Amino acid sequence: MKKELSPPFKITNDILNLVYEIGELVGKISAEKEFEKNLTLRKENRIKTIYSSLAIEQNTLTLEQVTDVINGKRVLAPLKDIKEVQNAYEIYERLDELNENSMKDLLLAHKIMTSELIKESGRFRSKNAGVYQGDKLIHMGTLPEYIPELIDNLFLWLKNSKEHPLIKAAVFHYEFEFIHPFQDGNGRIGRLWHSLILSKWKKFFAWLPIESLVQKYQKEYYIAINNSNKDGESTEFILFILEIIKETLIELVETQKMTDKVIDKMTDKNKERVKLLMKYLGQNDSISNKEAQSLLGISEATARRFLNSLVKENLLVAVGEYKARKYIKK
Q1: Which one of 17, 22, 268, 312 has the largest count of C-beta atoms within 10 Å of its C-beta?
Q2: What's the rounded Cα separation, in Å, for the pair 122 and 91?
Q3: Which keywords describe this protein according to UniProt (predicted)?
Q4: What is the pLDDT of residues 163-217, one digit of tens each?
Q5: Which residues are catalytic?
Q6: CA nearest to 155, candidates 182, 131, 176
Q7: Hey, what domains does the chain have and what are their CATH numbers?
């Protein structure tokens, strides 16, 4: 029987407190069930996930362009960037089919994520590779001949570990990035697998845009990885990731509360208008007065009053001068 090697990390009081706090937030979201039922919200968050994960890797497409690519519209942009979006969307849509404990599925995910982009798509790298900051080498990946064994052992630990899924997902994420098993796409696959592990615990994690906060705190993300590399264990990275997840869940709970509170006070007609508007903003960066008129079938003056009322209720933010004004979700 193969001997399992456990990755080094410590379970601190801070980590235990975060696991508890996240569990409380998960309970609130699961009780409402709105997130799982709302297909528009799910798609909106999936698009944010893909946009953020690719933006971390220097993909140049805007959120609106990513949305257009996913919706099958033509976009003027580098073909490589468009293909990255198409590939990422395909594999995130197949998340339910993947086994989080399977190396075979990991290689399949990499094959789809990097299809037509790199030579060693769906295969572990055959040459040395490192992580660079400009010209400076900050981490050298595992030698190619040791990669299959180390990844196999990581999956063995993941399958057998009795740790909480929140901790297992963070440890796997860190160890995977440390091994750096692929020619390219390590960051994208590491973040995908993190979401996969959590989604097997609570389904809504498949649509939760944790990557948006990783992008927001990108500098801190790499600092946590580098400090864990120096420490020789992943405790700091676990703490960082749990803080990110907690913040994501708090935002989700507060946004839903705020939206529900505003909608409850509205007439049935305006409730329907808000639903249509939020659906539109789930697929587009912003909306103008003219676009709102067309979408909702209302006059210019009614659209202006309606949009401004949502600004007052903190659901929207107005950007730009009067005639060129756009409205975005807060």
Answers
A1: 22
A2: 13
A3: ATP-binding, Nucleotide-binding, Transcription, Transcription regulation
A4: 999 999 999 999 999 999 999 999 999 999 999 999 999 988 988 878 888 898 9
A5: 180
A6: 176
A7: 13-256 (1.10.3290.10), 266-329 (1.10.10.10)
